[in-house]
Amino acid sequence: MKKLTGLLIGSVLLLGAVGCDVARTSGDAPTDPNEGAAEVEDAAKVTETKDDGQGEIRRKQLEADIRAREERNKVAGDPEVRADSDLESEIRSKLEANIPHSQLTVQATDGKAKILGTVPSQEEYDKIMPLAKEIKGVNEVTMEVKVIPATES
């Protein structure tokens, strides 16, 4: 019984630690939403981030994740009321699929989304707000995103 209790407590702690991770569009996006926008170091990183987000398998994963969360929310109750973690994940997936060059972090609280990080062009910057507002349950979007063109190295 003591082993089972220890296993259960360990599992809960592990899931809690993983669940506290910030929703990011790429591995090089800012990890702390309070730090502000990151800088694009070189064009190779932008290309690597783009390739990661544009792969066919990754796109299918993102679409499946959004569908699963929407179905789970339909079963759970009001489709307009979403858990903060669901909003973060859906916004992150939407941005990653549609703006593959981005380094963005998403934080959501009570239907209010905060998006921060960097994009390499004004065109991609202009896509962020409309894409985030497409997600059901998002009432307000604030952005701290900088346009920083990638530099050739």
Structural class: alpha+beta
Question: DSSP strand (E) fraction?
Answer: 15-25%
What's the count of strands?
4
Bulk shape = globular
Distance between the termini: 59 Å
Mean pLDDT score: 76
Residue stretches low in confidence (pLDDT < 50, at least 5 long) are none
Main-sheet strand order equals: 1-2-3-4
Number of domains: 1
Q: Summarize the main sheet.
A: 4 strands, mixed
SSE order, one letter for each helix or strand: HEHHHEEHE
Round the Cα radius of gyration to an integer and report it.
17 Å
Total helical segments: 5
Approximate helicity band: 40-55%
Give the SSE layout:
Blueprint: H1 2-19, E1 23-24, H2 43-54, H3 56-76, H4 84-98, E2 103-109, E3 112-119, H5 122-133, E4 140-147
Parallel strand pairs: 3-4
Antiparallel strand pairs: 1-2, 2-3
3D architecture notes:
Helices cover 51% and strands 16% of the residues. The protein has 153 residues and is of the alpha+beta class. The protein has one domain (23-147). The protein has a four-stranded mixed β-sheet with strand order 1-2-3-4. Strand 3, helix 5 (122-133) and strand 4 (140-147) form a beta-alpha-beta unit. Helix 4 (84-98) packs antiparallel against helix 5 (122-133). The chain is globular. The mean pLDDT is 76.
